[in-house]
Amino acid sequence: MDAQVVSQVDSRGLVCPMPTIRLGQAIRKVDIGELVEVWTDDPGSKENMAAWCKNTGHELVANSADETTFKYTVRRKR
Amino acid sequence: MKADIAAVPDVQGAPEEFPQPKRLALIVSKGTLDQAYPPLVMATTAASMGWEVAIFFTFYGLDIVHKDRMPKLSVSPVGNPAMPPPMKKVPVHIPTLVGVLPGMKSAATKMMINWMSKANLASIPELLEIANEVGIRMYACNTTLNVMGVSKEDLIDGVEFAGAPAFLDFAGESDVQLFI
What we know:
The structure holds two protein chains of two kinds.
Chain A: E1 5-10, H1 18-29, E2 35-40, H2 45-56, E3 59-65, E4 70-75
Parallel strand pairs in A: 1-2
Antiparallel strand pairs in A: 2-4, 3-4
Chain B: E1 23-28, H1 33-48, E2 52-57, H2 96-99, H3 104-118, H4 124-133, E3 137-141, H5 142-147, E4 159-162, H6 164-172, E5 176-179
Parallel strand pairs in B: 1-2, 1-5, 2-3, 3-4
């Protein structure tokens, strides 16, 4: 886990809306400026994560994908 | 399942200025299992995105927040040509005349609960619990409580009571209004 990432949300196996709900719960538990990493295998996560960040004002700072998992890193901004 | 690497979006950065939270107003008038999912999924998702959400339960929709009826929400194969065949290998839809037989509603309901569980979709009680946790305002329509013979004590915790004017007041200042 990235040293700056203080919370990791493993949403693999969960379908919409659970990944964003779990992310919403996790982001409230970290301080402003800290990072939350989300793991998901939801193929719709591209649009969902972008929409979530646009609506909540938090920042999508990194993403990656391997064979089975999309990973998104989000910074709490407010 | 193989993740599509090409589908990963570019890092977008944070919005320059953060606007007022958006608002979602839902009227929920149906009390079947299949019609309980869409409003609760939409509402909990909106709340997770920072939106303010109010759900107005009316007529049969009151069953979704009814302590005794909520765990028994069901779906009927009768009059529902979209109900998938019970067995994938035998692509035969349930004819209406078969659908009326005793036990068919229960079988269709179990089938749907099974799909939801296989898809790892949260159950209705779980979605209602999330709705409470994330601050979704849930209102039972005063007038239809009386019409449907439901008392306030019959409803789950967290449900408030309001009428059409209160809903319209919220809906009038909302960005999205849906009747389900």
